[in-house]
């Protein structure tokens, strides 16, 4: 659609939607600029035309996603493609894309002595058992929506590539298998044997990447990047390589807003707790909520505070937030001190007096990546293995989301991660048992409660992002 585009929040390069690519063409490894292409929608749709009965989010919200808007001028052909793809995914994996369950959880809140109204969205019901497939659909749909019928020809399909040994790899292999695209998965030698066996059953080409003593960084990501340089498509949930991953991920936010609007009294969330590893989930949720607010989806009036949760043992994004708050304080000078309480400090950072400084600094730091985002050393360990990324790839978008919504960061102890997972498994009926990573948002809520950062009666949302160990 006219004015639809993607803009790199690092260098400012802007591409019209018709020339969309996954990675910023100006990206370099050594310029300290955070190159990530972020989707920007031009004219927003009349949300009254959204079919509330349509359960496939990529169909229901096709006017709110950059990649599906590419075929807006031929809705019949677009619908035919979307339905055909979903049938293939459902036939191959037993599950197509359907709205995932959202429910109030009073028993869980009582069991954890929480005096908030708790809502949980169950992403274990998603394709591949997690939220990851939503993100990957951004790139896949771009192939079908921009290449049209040529994407249907196996001979013209470029190889897909991903570096992961967890839910993202399973989601990638599930989708690639369903649509018969070749996929290479780059994994460490100690990847879980059951996951490797599952990936092989799905036809993925597995590439083992041992750590090389003299080279810094993740060897799987390095091998993946080499494959992309040689022409593979970055089928990954990392914004710097694949900006389209936040486009597909926005479906989660649209569903959340729509589902709440159809509950009695149309409740609005005060806080939303989101676990952060690479950051694409939290970034997508923020972008989706912003677009929903702008379009008037579900009569949304304000955004919830987006509170991010990382394990105490590995928290590169929380470190970046703390650095940012210190830098704002330095610019403000001794005249006004930042409050120590995290929630009060978040409000201070977006107060009328301080917001201009916060925004000015935000405008600068995407060109000073190294000051804020560095690989976590030593290599992190935690029960929440799915959010152990040594860098938060989409840190800038998540940081912006926190600062604009008054969200604050939380560090979850290992014991709290265990409590959250165990209580989640006991009190919430999910499609598959929630994992430590999947319940880490709840661990953040528990941490906020223990630290006195919640108000009685507030509405809090939590995403159960996936199952497994
Ligand atoms: Zn750029």
Oligomer: single chain
Highest CATH level, the class of the domain at 102-129 and 245-464:
Alpha Beta
What order do the strands of the largest sheet run in, or round the barrel if closed? 4-5-13-10-11-12
Give the overall shape, derived from the CA principal axes: globular
Annotated CATH architecture of the domain at 102-129 and 245-464: 3-Layer(aba) Sandwich
- In CATH, the topology of the domain at 102-129 and 245-464 is named Rossmann fold
Radius of gyration from the alpha-carbon trace, in angstroms: 21 Å
Structural class: alpha/beta
Distance between the termini: 43 Å
Please tell me the overall pLDDT.
94
Looking at this protein, list some descriptive labels.
globular, alpha/beta, binds zinc ion, 469 residues, Rossmann fold, four-stranded parallel β-sheet, 13 strands
């Amino acid at each position: 659609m006219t004015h639809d585009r993607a803009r790199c929040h690092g260098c400012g390069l802007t591409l019209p939607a018709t020339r969309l690519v996954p990675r910023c063409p100006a990206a370099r490894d050594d310029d300290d600029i955070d190159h990530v292409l972020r989707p920007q929608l031009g004219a927003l749709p009349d949300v009254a035309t959204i079919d509330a009965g349509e359960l496939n989010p990529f169909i229901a919200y096709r006017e709110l996603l950059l990649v599906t808007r590419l075929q807006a001028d031929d809705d019949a052909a677009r619908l035919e493609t979307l339905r055909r793809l979903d049938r293939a995914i459902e036939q191959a994996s037993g599950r197509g894309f359907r709205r995932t369950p959202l429910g109030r959880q009073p028993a869980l809140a009582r069991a954890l002595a929480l005096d908030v109204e708790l809502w949980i969205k169950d992403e274990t019901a998603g394709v591949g058992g997690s939220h990851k497939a939503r993100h990957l659909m951004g790139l896949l749909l771009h192939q079908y929506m921009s290449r049209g019928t040529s994407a249907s020809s196996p001979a013209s399909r470029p190889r897909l590539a991903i570096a992961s040994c967890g839910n993202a790899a399973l989601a990638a292999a599930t989708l690639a298998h369903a649509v018969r695209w070749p996929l290479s998965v780059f994994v460490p030698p100690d990847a879980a044997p059951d996951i490797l066996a599952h990936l092989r059953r799905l036809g993925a080409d597995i590439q083992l990447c041992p750590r090389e003593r003299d080279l810094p960084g993740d060897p799987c990501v390095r091998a993946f990047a080499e494959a992309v340089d040689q022409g593979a498509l970055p089928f990954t949930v990392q914004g710097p390589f694949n900006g389209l991953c936040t486009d597909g991920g926005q479906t989660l936010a649209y569903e959340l807003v729509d589902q709440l609007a159809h509950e009695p009294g149309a409740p609005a969330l005060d806080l939303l707790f989101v676990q952060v590893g690479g950051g694409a989930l939290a970034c997508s949720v923020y972008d989706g909520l912003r677009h929903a607010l702008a379009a008037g989806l579900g009569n949304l009036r304000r955004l919830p505070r987006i509170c991010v949760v990382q394990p105490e043992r590995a928290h590169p994004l929380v470190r970046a937030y703390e650095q940012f708050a210190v830098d704002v304080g330095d610019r403000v000078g001794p005249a006004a001190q930042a409050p120590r309480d995290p929630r009060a400090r978040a409000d201070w950072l977006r107060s009328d007096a301080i917001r201009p400084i916060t925004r000015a600094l935000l405008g600068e730091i995407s060109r000073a990546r190294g000051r804020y985002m560095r690989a976590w050393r030593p290599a992190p360990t935690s029960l929440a293995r799915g959010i152990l990324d040594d860098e938060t790839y989409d840190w800038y978008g998540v940081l912006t989301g926190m600062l604009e919504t008054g969200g604050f960061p939380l560090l979850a102890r290992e014991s709290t991660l265990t409590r959250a997972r165990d209580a989640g498994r006991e009190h919430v009926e999910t499609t598959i048992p929630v994992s430590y990573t999947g319940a880490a948002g709840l661990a953040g809520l528990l941490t906020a409660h223990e630290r006195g950062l919640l108000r009685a009666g507030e509405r809090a949302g939590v995403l159960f992002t996936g199952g497994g160990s």
